[in-house]
Amino acid sequence: SVATMAAGVVLGGIVFWMFFRPVAEVDDEFLTALQREEFKPFYQPVMNIDTGRIEGCEVLVRWVKPDGKVVSPGAFMTYAETSGHVFEMTRQLMRKTREELGPLFGDHPELKISINLFAGHFDDRRILEDIVSIFEGGRISYDQLVFEVTERYPLRDIDKARKIIAEMHVLGCRVALDDTGTGHGGLAYLQQLGIDIVKIDKMFIDAMGTDLGASTIVDVLVELANSLGMGIVAEGVEREDQLQRLREKGVTAAQGYIFAPPLPGKMFIELASALLGE
Ligand code: C2E
Ligand code: CA
Ligand code: CA
Ligand code: CA
Predict the structure, then answer these.
(1) Is the CB of 262 under 6 A from ligand 1?
(2) How far is Cα 127 from Cα 163, in angstroms, rounded to an integer?
(3) What is the pLDDT of residue 22?
(4) Are 56 and 111 within 8 A, CB to CB?
């Protein structure tokens, strides 16, 4: 009957709305935020835990809404990645990083900047063009840049990723394996991709004191990194006893709330300048 058909159409409409409207809304909001450049780099210092000197920082994105509300990446990175907006977001972050850190980091060529990339960046040569077009001829040199590839999600094409990393190396950039020990690639990534730096995930740092397994994994990663000539950085260090354990294990670089959380540009520059004695 007409009534059943009408009900069907209404129901279909509701189902259609339910599935498509929320996506369209998020997309609009995200695109608008990109156009307004609301995605800001925050910077977390990376410290040398033997000398107390600052070694550089990791760039961590924050969505700073017009009302001042600060949103962490957990709430939007999945969408940024699946929608493909992460490419433009990353370009904006790299440009802002160049502008904000260029003066201080240009004067301190020993300081490094770590930039998070996602698996798709290692499947698309555009990332190389982006890096060159943003950093070529600027105050921050290529050998101050570290690109992080997470082990948490699989790479689609290892061979392609390996080639992109090789070209990053030709520029003078280095590559860190993020979240090491938590994900898909395992130790194979270390060897196949040409990784320069291993980042030990917070999970192991947290469990190190109570769990022999976690402590052993840290030992193995340190030994592996040493014998393969790779750098090593501990993530998410919150307490003095963790720092002490890391020192005993021969880890020299760490980041975490014990030093500072990710900070907005101005605050990070102030802290870094103070640490550099300026
Ligand atoms: P990640 O790269 O493993 O970054 C470390 C996360 O741990 C950051 O969370 C950081 O704020 C947090 N953290 C640092 N020190 C401590 C600590 O001592 N204690 C605790 N509890 N947490 C600490 P955040 O900033 O929320 O970022 C989460 C993840 O989002 C990052 O994990 C990274 O995978 C991703 N992400 C962040 N920024 C970007 C970006 O610009 N691009 C891409 N592709 N991913 C990003
Ligand atoms: Ca990271
Ligand atoms: Ca990490
Ligand atoms: Ca992590």
Answers:
(1) yes
(2) 12
(3) 56
(4) yes
Is the distance from the beta carbon of residue 179 to the nearest atom of ligand 1 less than 6 Å? Answer: yes
Measured at the CA of 132, the angle between CA 35 and CA 166, to 5 degrees, comes to 120
* Tens digits of residue pLDDT in 22-50: 555 667 899 999 999 999 999 999 999 99
Query: DSSP labels for 177-211?
Result: EEEETSSSSHHHHHHHHT--EEEEPHHHHHHTTT-
In a 3-state reduction of DSSP, which class is residue 174?
A: strand
Euclidean distance between CA atoms 265 and 19, whole angstroms? 39
Provide CB contacts within 8 A for 235, sequence distance 6+: 199, 200, 201, 202, 205, 254, 255, 256
**Mean pLDDT of all residues belonging to the chain:** 93
Q: CA torsion, points 275, 57, 183, 231, in degrees to nearest 10?
A: -70
Q: Considering the entire predicted model, what is its pTM?
A: 0.91
The letter for the amino acid at 240 is: E
Q: What is the pLDDT of residue 185?
A: 72
Centroid of chain to Cα 74? 12
**Does the ipTM surpass 0.95?**
yes
Using the CB atoms, write b or e for 183-206: b if 16+ within 10 Å.
bebeeebbeebbbbbbbbbbebbb
Of all protein residues, the one whose alpha carbon is nearest to atom 45 of ligand 1 is 116
What is the DSSP secondary-structure string of 52-106? --EEEEEEEEEEE-TTS-EE-GGGTHHHHHHHSTHHHHHHHHHHHHHHHHHHHHH
Residues near 245 by beta carbon (within 8 Å), at least 6 away in sequence:
208, 209, 215
Mutate which of 83, 116, 123, 155 for ligand 1 pocket (most atoms within 8 A of beta carbon)? 116
